[in-house]
Write a structure and sequence with these properties.
mainly alpha; 16 helices; 0% strand; globular
Length: 330
């Protein structure tokens, strides 16, 4: 616990240091917040899109959970997912929030094993990433000729998106490998000392879920929709501040790279790191105020995550952080 708390403090200090530097170098324009609020209903539209995306993400996770339990229902999973989002924003790392929400899911069906729950959380994150790579890679291919003329710095980013897309498609193919090959892989994993059996169990559960091809493909489709909503929410906030040669189709190719960067729990909810990455991404497009644009999106996303406190307060049986840590360590 002390180690986790120390890591959290370091992350907060790191995020504050970056934000302070951005503010002092005039790269972070807080005045845009007031301008957005004065600019009609766009902040509300962005908030609504992210709430809808949050619901679709919860429904995606429920599909994975239903492969083992008929007791799982979106009515329970959505508030549980909100609780996970809330604590993932403020607890050390994203993982703690995930483990906490798994405890609430296990209350819905006590027969669900730890390895299965862990696998669904992991697969859900991977499928979310695959959806993001599909959006970024597909738009990069479709709008390739229009994107590369914006700036010499754009072409490497577009090529990177396409490579990530190919990697994502390759991963999906691996998920659908023949059972015979999967068995050999499991046997090889078990040879690993100490952690071999644990990794093998999670991998086996992972592949068993992958046997439900329709569930995986539906989940990937839902992930694509989630990220379309997220990028549309970003555009809703910043479109009136963009240069005339930058529109939503350019954002569909650039924003996925930024969202990947904030998925890594280097700082709380991507604060600081996300600001810095988006500053550089928009510079590649020849547009300034990238950090300020991300700051608008960041504040709305945090507002959506804060909704998780409502189901947490209303939930009858509450789980503690110690229980989440115990689930993580066992």
């Amino acid at each position: 616990m002390l180690k986790a708390s120390f890591q959290t403090i370091l992350k907060v200090v790191f995020a504050i240091a970056i934000l302070t530097w951005l503010a002092k170098s005039d790269k972070l324009d807080l005045g845009l917040i007031n301008k957005v609020l004065e600019n009609g209903p766009w902040a509300l539209i962005s908030f609504t899109l992210l709430v809808c995306g949050s619901f679709i993400a919860a429904f995606r996770w429920s599909l994975l959970l239903k492969t083992k339990s008929e007791k799982i229902h979106i009515k329970k999973i959505y508030p549980i997912n909100l609780i996970g989002q809330f604590f993932s924003t403020f607890l050390p790392g994203v993982v703690t929030g995930d483990f906490l929400k798994l405890l609430y899911v296990r209350d819905c069906d006590r027969n669900l094993k730890r390895s299965f729950l862990l696998s669904t959380a992991l697969i859900d994150r991977i499928i979310g990433l695959i959806g993001l790579l599909i959006v970024g890679g597909s738009s990069s291919i479709y709008f390739y000729s229009e994107l590369i003329v914006l700036s010499p710095k754009v072409k490497p980013l577009i090529s990177f998106n396409i490579m990530l897309l190919l990697g994502a498609l390759g991963f999906v193919l691996v998920l659908f490998m023949p059972v015979r090959i999967k068995r050999h892989v499991i046997e090889l994993i078990k040879i690993l000392p100490i952690v071999g059996d644990k990794i093998a169990n999670i991998t086996e559960t992972f592949w068993k879920i992958g046997e439900s091809r329709s569930v995986i493909l539906k989940s990937i489709g839902l992930s694509v929709i989630v990220h379309i909503f997220a990028i549309s929410a970003f555009w809703s906030l910043v479109h009136s501040f963009l240069d005339t040669n930058i529109g939503i189709k350019q954002l569909f190719s650039i924003i996925p790279i930024g969202l990947i960067s904030i998925a890594i729990p280097i700082s709380p909810a991507g604060a600081g790191v996300g600001h810095l990455v988006f500053e550089e991404l928009f510079k590649a497009l020849g547009q300034d105020k990238g950090a300020s644009f991300f700051n608008l999106y960041f504040l709305v996303a945090i507002s959506v995550n804060l909704l998780g406190v409502i189901p947490y307060v209303l939930w009858k049986k509450k789980h503690t952080f110690k229980e989440a840590e115990a689930l993580e360590e066992n």
